[in-house]
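Incident log, support desk, overnight shift.

02:14 A customer reports that sequence design results differ from what the structure should imply. Their input is reproduced verbatim below. On-call engineer (initials T.W.) acknowledged and began investigating.
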């Protein structure tokens, strides 16, 4: 290490901040209120909200919604503008969010004349500045989407959020026998991996956005099975004092 700093936390782990250090800093935070996703069917039980932010580099969004599951259905990019589409397990609810990005586009937290700044000598980019609030990772949430809630313990009882970067969308196609051997009958369900924050736990469960039957003359348009990902994966972040 040519220059930088080494910090040892209470647990004895060593954090080294040098020119190769990489982390994301707080860019923005706020809350958004969802509206009903659709007027009928499974969509009537879900909510939807859109968050858009311009001037981004490599943003990561984290959400917190106690008592309600939240999923990322879509993330799109147009130039430096990112848009996140969130789906909730309740039609109308409030979702808190935090967006983290690289230091050069993040929000300065402490407007003070002194501190420590570290640059990458290869490209001159600031990789650390003590005037910014950087992302604090508590744990990794990784499981399988199910129709019932699965709980994952968190090291703190409150003040945490779940960050995700990619949608976890899956479609389940199940078929059954019908009286006419020349016809098929399908049950189709589309779902997302939802995350819920609670007291010392993060819970995951499927948020079903569509469910319908399909029948017709053989051959079926596609085979039965699971399409997409059944993984529920996210980062649990400490957002206290943010």
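02:41 Re-run completed on a clean worker. Output:
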């Amino acid at each position: 290490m040519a220059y930088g700093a080494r910090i040892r936390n209470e647990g004895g782990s060593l954090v080294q901040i040098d020119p190769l250090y990489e982390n994301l800093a707080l860019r923005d935070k706020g809350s958004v209120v969802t509206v009903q996703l659709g007027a009928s069917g499974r969509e009537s039980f879900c909510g939807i909200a859109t968050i858009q932010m311009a001037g981004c580099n490599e943003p990561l969004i984290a959400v917190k919604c106690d008592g309600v599951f939240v999923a990322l259905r879509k993330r799109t990019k147009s130039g430096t503008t990112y848009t996140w589409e969130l789906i909730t397990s309740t039609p109308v609810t409030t979702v808190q969010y935090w967006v983290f990005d690289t230091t050069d586009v993040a929000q300065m937290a402490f407007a003070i004349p002194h501190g420590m700044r570290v640059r990458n000598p290869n490209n001159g980019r600031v990789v650390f500045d003590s005037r910014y609030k950087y992302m604090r990772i508590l744990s990794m949430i990784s499981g399988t989407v199910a129709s019932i809630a699965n709980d994952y313990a968190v090291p703190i009882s409150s003040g945490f959020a779940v960050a995700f970067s990619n949608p976890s969308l899956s479609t389940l196609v199940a078929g059954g026998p019908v009286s006419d051997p020349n016809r098929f009958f399908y049950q189709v369900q589309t779902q997302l991996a939802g995350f819920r924050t609670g007291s010392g736990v993060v819970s995951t469960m499927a948020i079903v956005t569509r469910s319908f039957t399909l029948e017709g003359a053989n051959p079926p348009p596609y085979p039965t099975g699971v399409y997409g990902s059944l993984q529920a994966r996210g980062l649990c972040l400490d957002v206290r004092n943010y």
